[in-house]
# Entry
Amino acid sequence: MASTSQNHQYGENVIVLPPTAQLQALLTLIRDEKTHRGDFVFYSDRIIRLLVEEGLNNLPVVPKEVRTPTGVDFNGVSFEGRICGVSIMRAGEAMEAGLRDCCRSVRIGKILIQRDEETTLPKLFYAKLPEDISDRFVLLLDPMLATGGSCLKAIEVLLEHGVKEDKILFLNLIASPLGIQAVSQRFPKMKTITAWVDAGLDEHAYITPGLGDFGDRYFL
Ligand code: URA
# Structure
């Protein structure tokens, strides 16, 4: 189903959540260096929930008729196809609970990508994916999209496992313009759903203004 929040500044395959006052307030809370861990987790989880709902909103549905307890038929819809989640470790694991809250007993795989010290390129270190992943829609989870290197590598891994590009939805809290362009241009058939696109990257490849290291703030 098409979403009213689509924003085509970065291409038709990029959806930026509407910048409501609520979303801006939640992002302000998690960006604040004074926010301690408990609040960081609570407010990040609220944004993650918005992203998961928007991701699910982009899955296909088919007509479904049900009879209500009033004895009247209702012409509704039901989801078509099966889904799974794949988190890019470690920060992406923070988004798993939000997905489970919306999709009971969803299968979730994991991918670990790190910089290869010799080549400096992103390298796959570990992947554990559902064996039938090629039949599923995949919600790929990573909260921070900086240069896009890990995300691009993770998508390559999914494609190597037979996932169709147009069945990948990448869910992300904060993106840099460089990262979002790199991902959406290289893989035009997959969708990226992000809560916010920030100004850029600093000299350490951190998103700026950003929120620092998401994994450290969520898990430590
Ligand atoms: N990962 C983070 O946690 N923060 C950034 O700013 C970039 C990548």
About this structure: The chain has one domain: 4-219. The chain has a mean pLDDT of 95. The pocket of uracil is lined by residues 91, 144, 146, 206-207, 210, 213-215 (CB under 6 Å).
